[in-house]
Amino acid sequence: MMKATDLPETLPLFPLPGALLLPRARLPLHIFEPRYLQMIEDCLKTGPRLIGMIQPREVPNGQGERRLQAIGCAGRLTGFSETEDGRYMVTLSGISRFRLLQETAGAVPYRRGSVDWAPFARDLGSVEEDKGFRREPFMALLGRYFAAMQLSTDWGSLKDAEVEMLINSLSMLCPFAPEDKQALLEAPSLTTRRETLVTLMEFALRGGGEDEVMQ
Predict the structure, then answer these.
(1) Which residue intervals define the domain Lon N-terminal in the entry (predicted)?
(2) Residue 39 belongs to a domain with what CATH number?
């Protein structure tokens, strides 16, 4: 487990729309762009091996380099393999969210930023609890949502998963819009994230013709 003193003041940044990483969750990535191949190689040379996952903001008319969201999540590079054609398959393990203070210039092809970890000190703690979680109605809603979205999963593993892992994994995997993913990332507690997740699934179901709301 990393401590606050292990966290660097600057991070390499990987802007990726719709990609969400949360503390104590894992995110697989397929790396093929030259600048991000360089980022991975540089990351492997550092002690913490941290990369900041962050979503870009939309730019009017799609012009210019997109600005970044204020909040991202750092992941430690815990899995790495290289394909025969030079691509990387990596896994990031979520460590802590951060607030982006400003982007920093440097002689590297990828973006970097100075960050503030203090607002998310809780992320470095133990597994978070959600005392209001009710598994049976939540799983019933999830079943309706997966059926409507034509998604498949290992229901056995979901039914037995710890609450934090269940909520965070679904937040990362469900096909929500980037702004919805950002709302899930910025949720101040696991309870708030679960409530946001439920709202998003209910909204999707109503849009698909269902009018059921979990009480």
Answers:
(1) 11-205
(2) 2.30.130.40
